[in-house]
Amino acid sequence: MAEIALDRRGLLEEIFPNHAEYLIVTGLAGAAKDTAALTRESDNLITLGGAMGAAVSMGLGVALGAPGRKVAVITGDGELMMNVGALATVASMMPDNLTIICIDNGAHGETGGQPGHTARRTNLALMAEGAGLPSTFTLTSAGQFEDARRFLATAPAPRFLWARVLPGPPAAYRRNWDLAECRLKFRHTYLAKHPK
């Protein structure tokens, strides 16, 4: 696998500049903090807490329920590995409006930084391809940002971008933990014909 030289701080701003056009579901912890910081917890975002492994499945449900909308899942390697079979379900359903971005630091950041499977031999892009997703892209350096943006904008969906980042903390963003409020804001945006 390619050498990793990518800082997670600023990653989403570089590769995902049109985030306001999407309904966004995030996994836990670092991915949720990074995405909340990117969007300032806008109404088109739902971040998970205490639901490890659910982001891709939840994003698939949103994509199938809102076929006319762009949907993005932003998750981490540990969260994705918890329910990696969801990629096969995505490939079976083939929603043409779904993008999955996995921010992979190769470690379990919430429990002490223990090495995860991708720090050893596991290749999530190959797993996504093997599951049947038509488009995968592996991002390991800032020099690939333009290609990553093009991939997210034009590659056939469902698409999977594996962003392999250096160890380091996620965004220092304090999330809103009023989950009922967050759910209602996202629901309103989900149901709206034209998101704000």
Gross morphology: globular
What's the CATH topology name?
Rossmann fold
Under CATH at level 1, the class stands as: Alpha Beta
Largest sheet: 6 strands, parallel
Q: How much of the residues is beta strand, in percent?
A: 15-25%
Q: Name the helix and strand elements from N-terminus to C-terminus, one letter apiece.
A: HEHEHEHHEEEHEHEH
How many beta-strand elements? 8
The residue-averaged pLDDT reads 91
Could you give the topology of this structure?
Elements: H1 11-15, E1 22-26, H2 29-39, E2 45-47, H3 55-65, E3 70-76, H4 77-81, H5 86-93, E4 98-104, E5 107-108, E6 114-115, H6 124-131, E7 135-139, H7 145-154, E8 159-164, H8 179-191
Which descriptors would you attach to this protein?
196 residues; alpha/beta; Rossmann fold; six-stranded parallel β-sheet; two-stranded antiparallel ribbon
Structure characterization notes:
With 196 residues, the protein is of the alpha/beta class. It has a single domain (11-191), classed as Rossmann fold (3-Layer(aba) Sandwich). It has helices at residues 11-15, 29-39, 55-65, 77-81, 86-93, 124-131, 145-154, 179-191, and strands at 22-26, 45-47, 70-76, 98-104, 107-108, 114-115, 135-139, 159-164. The strands form 2 sheets. A 6-stranded parallel sheet has the order 2-1-3-4-8-7, sandwiched between helices. A two-stranded antiparallel sheet has the order 5-6. Helix 5 packs across helix 6 (124-131). The longest helix has 13 residues, at 179-191. It starts with 10 loop residues before the first helix and ends in a 5-residue tail after the last helix.
